[in-house]
């Protein structure tokens, strides 16, 4: 009898878990359709972020991301990341860069492209999704989806955990929060603003918030509570993530 009850319990738990994952996937697909849909298959965008210029190109499963800057001597530095490799050039000449340093460049370039292309990266095979319920923010109802990553294919920051907030009516991704362990540890909450359509994609800027309580432990439970702290005014603005001067490859 005990074995039968345990089997029933674990079977029910597995079914419930699959249902939450399926619901999360449905919500994400709705959001991707709203933010650009098939436009994510062919991307060719240029823009400025802070003091650097970026090129983000995708053709099906192939991608090429570039970060372009000028050093104090006027030399042009390009950090280039593709499916196959990552490398740096200075005035067009390929450089020999230590792996540990190149890894930092790769992470930085990929991070900018990742946030720009959200929510499309949530289709990546390494992404695991879980529906965690509904929440009301500024009078709107949002579906709340927790995202974590498989170690294989999840990159150096595979331990990071994200929570995305999708407008229940149209699927718009208006907020996100995340917990990170890469280089340092912390939690952030982002509010999207300045949405604009560029090359068929909805791109957004973000206000970056952190808890005012610096002693708040970095845990999944506290990550899930950041929307409540935001509503209660217990988050402080740290920075703004603003991408400017967009143009498409067709311009």
TrEMBL record:
What is this protein's record name? Deoxyribose-phosphate aldolase
Question: Species name for this entry?
Answer: Persicitalea jodogahamensis
Its domain of life reads Bacteria
């Amino acid at each position: 009898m005990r074995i039968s009850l345990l089997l029933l319990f674990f079977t029910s738990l597995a079914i419930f878990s699959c249902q939450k994952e399926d619901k999360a996937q449905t919500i994400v697909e709705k959001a991707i359709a709203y933010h650009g849909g098939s436009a994510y298959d062919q991307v060719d965008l240029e823009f400025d972020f802070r003091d650097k210029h970026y090129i983000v190109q995708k053709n099906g499963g192939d991608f090429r991301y570039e970060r372009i800057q000028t050093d104090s001597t006027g030399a042009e530095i390009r950090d280039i990341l593709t499916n196959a490799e990552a490398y740096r050039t200075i005035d067009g000449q390929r450089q020999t860069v230590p792996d540990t340093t190149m890894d930092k460049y790769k992470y930085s370039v990929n991070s900018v492209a990742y946030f720009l292309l959200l929510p499309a990266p949530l289709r990546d095979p390494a992404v695991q999704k879980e529906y965690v319920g509904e929440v009301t923010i500024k009078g709107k109802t949002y579906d709340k989806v927790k995202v974590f990553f498989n170690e294989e294919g999840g990159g150096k920051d595979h331990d990071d955990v994200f929570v995305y907030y999708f407008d229940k009516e149209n699927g718009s991704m208006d907020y996100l929060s995340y917990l990170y362990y890469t280089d340092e540890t912390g939690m952030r909450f982002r509010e999207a603003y300045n949405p604009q359509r560029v090359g068929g994609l909805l791109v957004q800027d973000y206000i970056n918030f952190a808890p005012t309580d610096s002693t708040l432990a970095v845990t999944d439970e506290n990550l899930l509570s950041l929307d409540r702290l935001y509503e209660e005014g217990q988050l402080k603005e740290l920075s703004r993530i603003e991408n400017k001067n967009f143009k498409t490859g067709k311009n």
